Each structure stands twice: as C-alpha cells, then as structure tokens.
Amino acid sequence: MNRLFLALVSLILVVSSSAFAPSQPATHVVRHANLDTSRGSIVDTVQSLYNNWGKKATASHILFRPSQFPEDEAKAKLTEMKEEIGDDAAKFAELAKEWSGCPSAKNGGDLGEFGPGMMVKRFDEVCFGEAVGVVHGPISTQFGEHLILVTKRTGED
After folding, report:
1. Cβ–Cβ under 8 Å, residues 81 and 95
2. Strand partners, 106
3. Is the pLDDT of residue 20 over 90?
C-alpha cells in the first residue's frame, strides 16, 4: 500500500511540475530503426518506481551513438566486444574508455549508483531486472546501442 501511495504522489508531483514547463510537446519520440521510445515518459517512471521501490543499481555501459556507427555495425561490434569481455569488469572498463561515445567513458563507463526511473525505460529494465555481474546487450535506446554491466544492486527482498 505504501508503494502505491508513493507512486501516486510521485505522479502528482511530476504532472504538477510540468505545468510550469515551457509549452513544448510532453515527450520526444525518437525513432531508431524499429525502436519507438518516449523520453521522460511519466508512466514508465512511475511503474519503475513502484516495481523497484527501495532498490538502487550501480552499472557501467559502453555506448555507440548513431553518429559513431550505423545500427547494424554497432550491434555487430558490440556483440564482438561482449564475447571478448566475457563478464570481466576490468576488460569492460578498458573497452569503455577506448570505444564508448558517452562522457562516462573516461570513468570506464561507470554511471555510478541510481534509482528506478532515472534511466530510459529499456536501460532501467536491464539494470533492475537482469542478473548482476553479467554483460547485457546489445540494448537499443534512443541514444544508440549499449552494452550494460550491472555491477551492484541493493534493496532486493
């Protein structure tokens, strides 16, 4: 019951704060091949908060932006890298520094600790729903193609 109450309060706060935002479309839909995502989707955020209440995740990623590689090439290269990495966190960090198109590359792809709903939907699903210590991907988001290594998750039952 507490989780439902907190999810509703979160939804009300997000909706009420949008009243002061500039008059722009509520969400930006970005098409990346057949991927249709809504950035900043309130429903996705509230659902993640409800399903993962009290959890925190720590993860690293390697991002190939659409400007770096076409989608098919990015997926092929990430698949090759995933095989090379296995589940070795040190190797993951080394390749993130060399290849990732994200500013986190300088930290070996480390994104630090974050809560549910703080990342885009597909990224959030991997970080809070998949195994810890395993490299996942390639994962498609509106930012490009990712390999994700969930290094820690707390607050699980």
Report:
1. yes
2. none
3. no
